[in-house]
Amino acid sequence: MLSEFHLKGVEEVAGSIQDLWEYSTDRWLSLRRPTGDKQVKHWPEDPVWSQLRAVRLAPASTGIVRQRIEEASEEMLVRGLMGYATSLAALRQRTDLGETFADAEPLVRRYLANRDRDFVGEVRRKAARLMNVTAPLPDPADAEPPWRARELPRT
Fold first, then answer.
1. Is 2 in contact with 17 (CB distance < 8 Å)?
2. Does position 35 have pLDDT exceeding 60, yes or no?
3. CA atoms of 145 and 137, how far apart (whole Å)
4. How far apart (Å, rounded) are the C-alpha atoms in residues 26 and 20?
5. Contact at 8 Å (CB) between 8 and 129?
6. Burial of 58 from C-beta contacts in 10 A (0-12 / 13-18 / 19+)
7. Between these two residues, 95 and 127, which has the higher pLDDT value?
8. Cα diameter, the chain
9. What percent of the chain has pLDDT over 70?
10. Do the beta carbons of residue 107 and residue 119 sit within 8 Å?
11. Would the pTM of this model clear 0.70, i.e. be above it?
12. What string of DSSP letters covers 49-106?
């Protein structure tokens, strides 16, 4: 998994330890208290986990970016969007694209609200990642930055 973050050695891993900690404790792992809800993601986070997530292992984050985010292309995104939109349309017995997106908007807003997020914030976060704004600064000794996105061929 470290290669997905473009980390190529102990020094880069050590320099990104806070980012790895935040990714691991916020997006990858969790400790939750069981409730009657069948979906684990709806269970409340254990207070011990909240305290553990707040631990700072390093004074700052470097803003590592996973390779799969960098390599996103418009064509790939449209393919995924089309798949999700047609699935939602089928589920809701729709055949019109505009109606399907109208159905999707309140669903997306509710999803984000349940996670204390908003669409503008998500767009800004992803735009920063796609522009490599949050990527680690390259070491001047390196000829090629380890985080350079590859251009995907157009078909």
1. no
2. yes
3. 8
4. 10
5. no
6. middle
7. 95
8. 58
9. 70
10. no
11. no
12. HHHHHT--SSS-------HHHHT--HHHHHHHHHHHHHHHHHHTT---HHHHHHHHHH
Whole-angstrom distance, CA of residue 11 vs CA of residue 116:
35
- Confidence bin at 155 (pLDDT 50/70/90): low
Please report, as a single letter, which amino acid is at residue 134. T
Q: Dihedral, CA atoms, 131, 137, 141, 145, nearest 10 degrees?
A: -30
Helix (H, G, I), strand (E, B) or coil at 145: coil
Give the separation between CA 46 and CA 32, rounded to whole angstroms. 5
- pLDDT for position 50: 87
Round to whole Å and give the CA distance between 136 and 62. Answer: 5
- The helix or strand, by DSSP H or E, that contains position 10, with its residue range, turns out to be helix 10-15
Give residue 149's pLDDT.
46
Q: Supply the mean pLDDT for the chain.
A: 77
39 by Cβ neighbours in 10 Å (0-12 / 13-18 / 19+) ranks as exposed
Per-position b or e across 68-92, b if 16+ CB within 10 A of its CB:
eebeeeeeeeeeeeeeebeeebeee
CA–CA dist 64, 2 (Å, integer): 10
